[in-house]
Structures are given as C-alpha cells and as structure tokens.
Amino acid sequence: MRRGIKWLLETQGKGLSQFKKAPHEGRWTDLNYTQGIAAMALCEAAGMGGSSEVKIAAQKAVEAIDDAQRRTDDSQREAWDYWPQSEKAIAGQNDSSVMAWNVLALKSARIAGLKVNVFCFEGTMRWIDAAQNLKDFNPNDAAAAYDYLGGFMPYRGTCAQFGGQGSFATMAAAGLCRLMIGGAAADHPGVLGPCNRIKKANLPTGYPFNLYYGYYASLLMFQKGGDHWTAWNEAMKPALINGQLRGGKDDGSWDYPEASKCESRVMSTALAVLCLEVYYRFQKLNN
What we know:
Blueprint: H1 2-11, H2 32-47, H3 52-68, E1 71-73, E2 76-77, H4 96-111, H5 118-131, H6 142-146, H7 159-162, H8 168-181, H9 189-201, H10 211-224, H11 226-243, H12 265-276, H13 278-281
Antiparallel strand pairs: 1-2
Helix pairs in contact: 2-3, 2-4, 3-4, 4-8, 5-8, 8-9, 8-10, 9-10, 10-11, 10-12
C-alpha cells in the first residue's frame, strides 16, 4: 500500500499527454477515468490517516476533478465526459461511467475532510435527473411504486437523445450516485427502480459475470439494504469465491473471460476484491 501511494504521489502532474488538454498539477493523465480512480485512492488514503503530503496531493486531485467538470456556462454544470472540457460543452454530452468514478472520489474526499465544491454535486444531480429514465413511476400508487422497474441510465447522453436505453452497470451507477451525493432516499425511483431490476433480472448465477456491473451493483445494493442486499449478496459472494483460482501461478486471482468485461487479470482481480469488500468500504448512508 505504501508503495502504491508513493507511486501516485510521484506521478501526479507528470503524465499529461502531448495534447495538454488538462494542464493541472493535480492530474495524472488527460483521461477523466484515470483521474477519478487515482483521486479516489488518494482521498481514501488521506481519510485513513494519510500524511500531510498525501492530503495535499488528494486536495489537488479533487480540484482537478472540479476543473474538468463539463459546463454549458460558468453557472450550469453537468457531469464528466472522457476528457476535461477545453471549451463550451455540448449539453448532455456526459459519460455515466466516468461520472460515477469521479463522484465516488469526491465523496471520499468529503468524508476525508477535504474541500469539495458543492457545485460539483449539484451539476451532477442536474444531469442525472435529465438523463435517467424514470417514466411511468406513480408515487400515488404505493404497490406499483414498491415494484417499480424503471431507472435505466444511458451510457452516454440523455434519455431524450438515446430513447432511455442503458445498461445494468450505468443504471446501478446512477442509483449509487444519487445516494452518495445525498438528497435521495433509498425509495427514490432513481434508486428503487435499479435495485428492483437487479434483484429481479440480473443476479449473478456464477463466475464469470460482468464485474464492472458487479462493482456498482454491490455498492448500490449494500446501501439499499434489506431484501435487495440479501438477494444480491447471497448470489454475488459464492459466485466470486467459487470463481477464484486456487493453485498454480495465478493462485488467488480471477480469470478475465469476455463475460467479465475485464481486459486483464489485474482488473478482474481488483474488481472482484472490491465487490467482496463492499461491507468495509463505506458506512451505510443515512438517506
């Protein structure tokens, strides 16, 4: 862990590409995916008693996320795309997956006592509200609301642009972001719909399964709790434990067949471990 944190400190601000789309000392590369994941690691290290050097670097990483958030103008923020904005953004041109990593980084920063611009969260919620498909939800019909199966989130853009289509992974990410940002209860349609869909139609039946989806579903269902978490945990945990390799040169890792949606053994193993340690990563939120 010390070596990993040391590497993050040494490489921050030095990995920008020749295009220089993001000339900020708090960044690692131009790519917002990289920024969110690396920033989350440092923010969690800062919150777990990291040194002053770690906390300073984590704060710089958070400020770089702030700078990279898409804006239609100075007061109207949205979320994040693959690349930091370099000019006026096109409304709705955001990426759900990139957004989720950066929201989790900002949430970790807030928990660690770092400074987080509230407009980052407000802009993200503005875009989730515009993009997530919550049609047909009827709050006046308690029985129907309880069984609601809406909440799909487009991978990119808004429902209006893409007909409300999405994936289980981006849907889980949207529900999780609602809870992490705050202001959404666990029975909000944007949370309830994804959880119901996951419980009804997409529990793991063994390994391999889409681990990227599994990561966000694990975090979301843990926060939702109750029957949703029980159903997910009872399916996810044995699937991953039984899928872990035993013996040989790859002992302790997870394979990365196509169904896992991973591109390397490192990625599949990291995501599997993140799924299995969801109990320890965040406390239950009081939403």
